[in-house]
Amino acid sequence: MIRILFVCLGNICRSPMAEAVMRHLIEREGLSGRITVDSAGTGDWHIGKPPHAGTREALDRRGISWEGIRARQFTKRDLDAFDYIVCMDTSNRRDVERFGRGSARILTFMELVRDARSPDVPDPYYTGNFEEVYALVEEGCEELLRRIRKEME
Ligand code: 4NP
After folding, report:
1. What are 8-17's pLDDT values in tens digits?
2. pTM for the full model?
């Protein structure tokens, strides 16, 4: 089983969107038995909450389920519990790396996006632009799945 964890700050906007999109792609390709997805936040403010209304709307508009997704906080144990930890921005990555090292490969999400204008997925909690984030999340998740499929060959 290949285990993926997306990490952002609050775990209500960007990383749950990536979790839902990735889960959707994995199900569509019949890979649910081989790849699992989760998400977490480095902060603790929203533990237990469903995704932000902006994230829910972006997903609902495309018929992508966010069922069962609730915020939780990143922990040191995650460094060994996952194969890929994909951080939505460089600050999230620094926060994750402060916990130490584990067996997970750590990526920054924008490494998966072509012609990236910034190393960070902009935070829609502050910008309000969930559609911009959705486009980046879709492209990055498709690329991540392509890379993982290659590795599984
Ligand atoms: P996220 O956005 O990291 O994409 O979930 C945020 C959500 C909440 C907060 C910051 C960012 N907050 O400060 O509560």
Report:
1. 999 999 999 9
2. 0.98
Residues serving a catalytic function are: 8, 14, 123
Tokens of 34: 């081989």
Q: Is the CB of 38 under 6 A from ligand 1?
A: no
Please enumerate in sequence order all residues whose Cβ is within 8 A of that of 153, keeping only pairs 6 or more positions apart, or say none: none
133 ligand 1 Cβ < 6 A: no
List Cβ neighbours of 61 (8 Å cut-off, separation of 6 or more).
none
CATH 3.10.150.10 fits 2-152, yes or no: no
- pLDDT tens, 53-106? 999 999 999 999 999 999 999 999 999 999 999 999 999 999 999 999 999 999
Note whether 142 and 109 are within 8 A (CB).
no
CB-ligand 1 contact for 12 (6 Å cutoff): yes
3 state DSSP class of 9: coil
| Pocket flag, ligand 1, residue 13 (CB < 6 Å) | yes
Pick the atom of ligand 1 nearest to 17's CA: 4
CA of 149 to the centre of ligand 1 (A): 31
